[in-house]
Design a protein that fits this description.
single chain; about 270 residues; alpha+beta; Phosphoenolpyruvate Carboxykinase, domain 3; 2 domains; 6-stranded mixed beta sheet
């Protein structure tokens, strides 16, 4: 008996991802899950590609949910995803929107790892058709500066971007991952990398170009780079290699009271 699939295609950071929704005996679950996912990623939807997708995610049902229990801790873990090989994975209609996003993040990490790229914890704006990125510690003002710049420039992200090296140049892509502020544009976008700022809240406006690669690498790893245990060695290598090749790093201190001067400063440099 043939299994009927509704196949949808998406462009995530230049990668084609196919999501195949299997027809099930529980149409209500299927309908709710599909509508939720398609609404979340509608800006990245594309027509059927001419080439094979980089990765395929099959969504199906499962009668018996596999669960791992740690009795002493009172914790229950549910299997929500199975990676079959480097180009295919399987998940289920019972999972949440957050769990599906964790799958997308995992898939993107794997694809980027073998395609000269990485995810970066940063906000960004498009200035003079280039991506200006802002990195900071948690609560350091990444989202704030992205919101304030929105009155002057197109927002790229307020939380996460992708950096990929393509044709010997670095480009910044929007991601399908959720942002803190839902008004961020969620659609494919690729811009040449411009400048990277490590930002700090300070009443006095200060900007300094950074030259010391050891200091830059330390800041980059601490404030912006996603260092998950899986594939950590490759991610650290990419951070080191990127910092070695890129030269436009700055320290930027600002406060809300002098933000208009920040706009002038960005335009000037």
């Amino acid at each position: 008996m043939a299994i009927h699939m509704d196949i949808r295609f998406f462009n995530f950071a230049g990668f084609t991802i196919a999501i195949r929704f299997e027809e099930t005996l529980y149409p209500a679950f299927e309908k709710d899950f599909k509508e939720n996912i398609l609404a979340a990623y509608q800006g990245f939807a594309i027509e059927k590609p001419t080439k094979k997708p980089h990765f395929t995610i099959d969504v199906t049902t499962r009668e018996n949910v596999e669960t791992i229990v740690r009795k002493k801790e009172g914790k229950y873990f549910v299997n929500y995803y199975e990676e079959k090989n480097k180009s295919k994975g399987i998940t289920y209609y019972f999972i949440s929107r957050l769990q599906f996003e964790l799958i997308i993040r995992k898939v993107m990490h794997n694809l980027l790892e073998s395609n000269d790229g990485f995810l970066l914890h940063a906000s960004g704006s498009v200035i003079d058709n280039k991506a200006y990125l802002f990195l900071a510690d948690a609560g350091g003002g990444k989202s704030t500066i992205a919101r304030l710049l929105l009155n002057h420039y197109t927002r790229l992200s307020d939380d996460t971007v992708v950096i990929r090296k393509q044709n010997s140049k670095f480009y910044v892509h929007r991601t399908p991952l959720r942002e803190k502020r839902p008004q961020s544009e969620k659609m494919p976008g690729m811009f040449p990398l411009g400048k990277i700022f490590f930002i700090h809240k300070n009443p006095e406006l200060q900007i300094e170009k950074l030259e010391d690669k050891e200091i830059i690498l330390s800041k980059f790893l601490k404030q912006g780079f996603f260092l998950q245990k899986e594939g950590m060695r490759n991610k650290i290598y990419w951070a080191f290699d990127f910092v070695k090749q890129w030269s436009e790093f700055y320290d930027l201190s600002y406060g809300l009271q002098n933000f208009n001067r920040v706009i002038e400063l960005l335009q000037r440099i």
